[in-house]
Amino acid sequence: MELEARREFHVVIVGGGFAGTALALHLLRDANPRLPLRISLVERRGSFGPGLAYSAPSTRLLLNVRSLDLGVWQSQERDFYDWLLAAGHPDQAQGFASRALYGAYLQHRLQEACGSDSPLHLLDDEVEDIQGLAAGRPKLRVELARGPSLLANAVVLATGNERSARPRALSPALLESPAYLGHPLGDAALEGIDRDAELFILGSGLTMVDVLTLLDERGHRGAVQVLSRHGLLPTPHLPEKPADAFALSPQWMTPPKSLSALTRLMREEIARARASGRSPGCVIAALRPRISQLWQALGLREKQRFLRHLRTYWDIARHRMPPESARLVEKMRSAERLHVIAGRLISADLEGEKVCVRYRSRSGELVERRVDRFLNCTGPDRHLHASHNPPLRALLERGELEVDALGFSPVLAPALHSKARKRLHWLGPLRVGELWESTAIVEIRTQAATLARQLLAQAEDEMRGGTQPSSSLDPRAT
What we know:
Blueprint: E1 9-14, H1 18-30, E2 37-43, H2 79-86, H3 90-93, H4 99-113, E3 120-124, E4 127-131, E5 140-144, E6 150-152, E7 154-157, H5 172-175, E8 180-181, E9 199-202, H6 206-217, E10 224-228, H7 259-275, H8 280-287, H9 291-297, H10 300-309, H11 311-318, H12 323-334, E11 338-351, E12 354-361, E13 366-371, E14 373-376, H13 390-397, E15 401-403, E16 410-412, H14 417-420, E17 424-426, H15 432-435, H16 441-464
Parallel strand pairs: 1-2, 1-7, 2-3, 7-17, 8-14, 9-10, 9-14, 10-11
Antiparallel strand pairs: 4-5, 5-6, 11-12, 12-13, 15-16
């Protein structure tokens, strides 16, 4: 196969969900038109834009933030809002839009960017490995499952959240049984559940709320028991408006270095907000631009204390549910169809066609129940040691990447820093250990804008430096 040699700066983005899409669109918008830029967006699912988060077709699964400032570009926060109005969805523009519509918006913006002369190329494939870090080569080789390898000046891992971890208390027989749903939000995962089936759900966060929404949409009427360590549900969004923005006290200008000081200051701010008739949510909103700075000011031991003692309380306050979801939860609880339990799972096993679940409640009582299905809604597994991400796993196994002290984020092996820091990047959930707040649209959009500027500056430097012509395809792979 004869390959055309190109003198270009090639960025390979691994993952075509929101993070990868945002980076690609920022690169396209900010690039000098004369820069010989090539962008390959690689997505193993073949659906570019929505990713797993925004691909569910149900119109009842809603974004958990209002539509007004969710544009994919950092410089155009109202772009999604304007798109909703133009597409004939003014009701959703004013409140909480469906995630399916957000996925359609991302697809639309990508399609606009993929003209015949566009440097953006969408590849329906899976990245298996990334070679060349240890050798310090000027280009990395990206190995694909089906297509020929790609040579890249820079590779960005934008692979999103990992799937939920398998609970250790579940028996192997249950894990292999149709009675266990390890990924209940996956394609058609809930279709086989009988309307009257009694369900047991592990985890009480937003994943659980989404599952309840889909079950209700399918007409499910059986009892649902939900178990989590604290038995707490996400806080509902309240009808607060931008005009109600909360002004933080000057004490936040110097980030507290201890968890105790941080907690004390947070409580003072919440009390001040309530005294003025506002909810604690407005304090969270005001703190949001500072969260990564606050997180980085804490030492490792303080971060670990936060994860042990306060993470659950932060999550239910920070990751709130839309009012429609809150109304469904309250309706099910009022009808005694939904029971939320604080406790610890002891075991779960198959007994004939039933699942026998044992747990210990917070009061110390040992409880045993038999249900029809067991659903794992514990949310994404943040521990990278158990990652199922092929290129990340390969890099970790070779020692070219390591895992940070919390186990949440990759870091380049020290010997590779000077050679590889310009070649391999990551954004989105892979930066949780570093930034903590790194899973929502606004934060990922900001990361994408920053990384795009960094990559484009690098491209300008390398092209001015007279990089030797090279093919974006690796001849050894053809």
